[in-house]
Amino acid sequence: MKDRKGPIKDRKPLASKRKHKGLAASTEWAILSAMSTDSVYRQEDCRFEYDREDLVGRLGSILDDPQALITSEEALRAYETDGLSAYRELPVAAVIPRSVEQVCAILRLCQELKVPVVARGAGTSLSAGALPHPQGLLLSLARFNRILEIDAERRIARVEPGVRNLAVSEVAAPHGLYYAPDPSSQIACTIGGNIAENAGGVHCLKYGLTVHNVLEVTLATMDGELVTFGGAGEEGPGCDLLPAIIGSEGMLGVVLEATVQLLPEPPCRRVMLGAFETVEQAGDAVADIIAAGIIPAGLEMMDGPAIRAAEDFVAAGYPVDAAAILICELDGMPAEADAQVERVRAVMEDHGAGEVRVAADESEAQRLWAGRKAAFPAVGRISPDYYCMDGTIPRKHLATVLARMREMASEYGLRVVNVFHAGDGNLHPLVLYDANVPGELERTEELGGKILELCVAMGGTITGEHGVGMEKINQMCVQFSDAEREQFLALKRAFDPDGLLNPGKGVPSLNRCAEFGAMHVHGGKLPLPDLDRF
Amino acid sequence: MTANVDHGEEIRARVEAAFQAGRPLVPTGHGSKRFLDSDREGEVLSLAQHRGIVKHEPTELILTARAGTPLAEIEAALAEAGQMLAFEPPRFAGHGTLGGAVATGLAGPRRPFAGRVRDFVLGTRFVNGRGEALRFGGEVMKNVAGYDVSRLMVGAMGSLGVLLEITLKVLPRPECERALVLELGPEEAFRHVAAWEAEGLPVSGSAHDGLRLHLRLSGAESAVAEAVRRTGGENDSPGFWEALRDHELDWFRNLDGPPWRVVLPAGRRLPEGLAKRVLADWNGRQLWLDRVDDPVRLEEAAAAVGGSLMRFGACGRGGQRRPEARPGRERLERRVKEAFDPAGILNSGAN
After folding, report:
1. H or E stretch at A419
2. Strands, DSSP E only, in B241-319?
3. pLDDT at A123 exceeding the cut of 50
4. Could you identify which of A140, A171, A419, A522 might form a hypothetical disulfide with A375, taking C-beta atoms 3.0 to 4.6 angstroms apart as the criterion?
């Protein structure tokens, strides 16, 4: 959510309006399918046929609360997009159930009628994971916002899916505990959404992603059955489906409860900043910090434009003439953290850091972090719009990839600003554009796609923590072979044989990849920029 | 020394042939953990020759090796670069391959402090039950493209695919390690260790043999020295932690039949008196029990606190007990198995 500036213009205003005209008549479905050429959904993903009035009527009797069932176009607008506001669709209806029983009944009904279902937490997905399906039901989990249990002695929290990420750490704090994954949207995003996306954050290298911090998940399957995964039975040998659930982008089931582990607050944290004259020096310093046997709690890089934008916005005290800065957080027992600070300082200086600054106290530490945390909104102030990418590469290729991205951006006549989780090799290039300039969004999306393909070519991946969703579905064709994608689809069918949960996202069909491949260099080879197409 | 050769294509072809003929296969490494499911049937598909470290990049914290690579070889290569496998996989009778460690999902004493086996799996290459060689995950720390199929392989006992290659996250070897013994009863010991851990002390092992607490501290020299000042304790006998990991302590030599293994959720305990001899690892979360008078009572006690129970060895997977019967989950597990192995030829009957 924080990662996107909005609103940008709806690319398909006509399509969205037309879709909802006359929805009352179930015979409209044929027309809807025909319209889906205007949609980001493909026609093959919009072939659901059911009686809408029957659906709405039966939902009403399940919910038993008129406010929990939304069918008017005005009210549905609230759900038409998520953190990736370039994509918009109106669902047929939205429901806001209160109880597990209601969710199961809704799913059973949708299974019976073959109605697509898109689950939604806070709607902060940056890959359109929560984008509604034009023929589907939007299932909001906003009312599942209770923290069911905090057990400080066992260091666990049992929560409903609509609980905000930060709320877990807030209630754990009095016990000296916290929940480690901290995506930048943590003030708003929910644990259910975090599980769907396997969300990360700035402390992953040392403390892991969502998959490392979730112990147990209770899921409702599409046929309305509750199944619990994880727990002490999953300590090998024995099949453990929990890792398949985490990061499954709402395509295998609907998370209704999760038990997460809480970590003790480290006795001390040290935050330091190193400023470099070139991005390459900073990139090499990152590799050598790790090579020195140090696992920082956080290791972030910002390039020149990001430094200046952040400084203008929050006055973090960053050196504005640096080409790159590294922000490094070290934690542990005081003697250990202090020793590591000195070793990191030495590595930074070896790589030509002009300035190395260690925060003297907590408030200075917070100030150093503030610039990084405000980097996306700060970039939002220097450009009408920006597009936030999310690829991961092996750390050693940081400098090469950054240089190549600069070249590609200039070929497209666009600017790219870089803020990223350097310790994980997780890039967040922000492509700056203006949605009011015709064709600029399309060009931005194409550059974004090329950047992701560059990540794959360098041995990385098209998404480190934001998910595939609708946004990166074409790039899945580049990263995986037909047989691998078919294996994903087979796994999906094991949970959801009729393909009703979040259809059209995450894993592309063979057809989609065939079409994408036809206009694209294939096989993981780096496609040459093709300016002729503009 | 055996040559390191890529037999991946041969293995793939054998699986494909078996798929076409509907002939069950039993993927095997060193066979050091075969007792975990000795009742499986089929033609042995040995991975022992498919070995060798494919890639080790210390600054990327990754290592990729073929499934048949001996754990000892991997640990030696990592040690040279000052690194280690943080999940500390056991090597029974000195044997064990990387593929076997991942397929069984068994972790050693560091598990509660460093993580599970699957926490360190970044990517895999495997042959599914149709004889297709597939690659999932990769060599980077963060990767959410597609379902996390690689981590699904952990603990699956080869029933979803024949592992060819595994990429792991590896960690720096701690600068300093101290092994101590403390005269504390089990309950008191586990409470102390949990408190020390919460205070940031670098605990990397906590086991109780019924008489004393064995405590391991690993980290920067300064941190370990400070920790020892706070915990107190005498030096432990050398080699205790490796012997615990590999079941070579006297405790295991004096077993009266295969021990029972109970894994408990964090902070849960079993009542006393269920077995004559108990060895508690993982700060009380993994229990080894010998001379159990009443297995049914043990099973009920484990289930009551959400623990899992298995007879560790010599009785096949019939010994595996889940915390509770979960029909919905078992149905999904069956369907996932079919999604990877439609003909049911891989380690058939397992899981």
Report:
1. strand A415-420
2. 260-263, 275-281, 286-292, 308-311
3. yes
4. A419
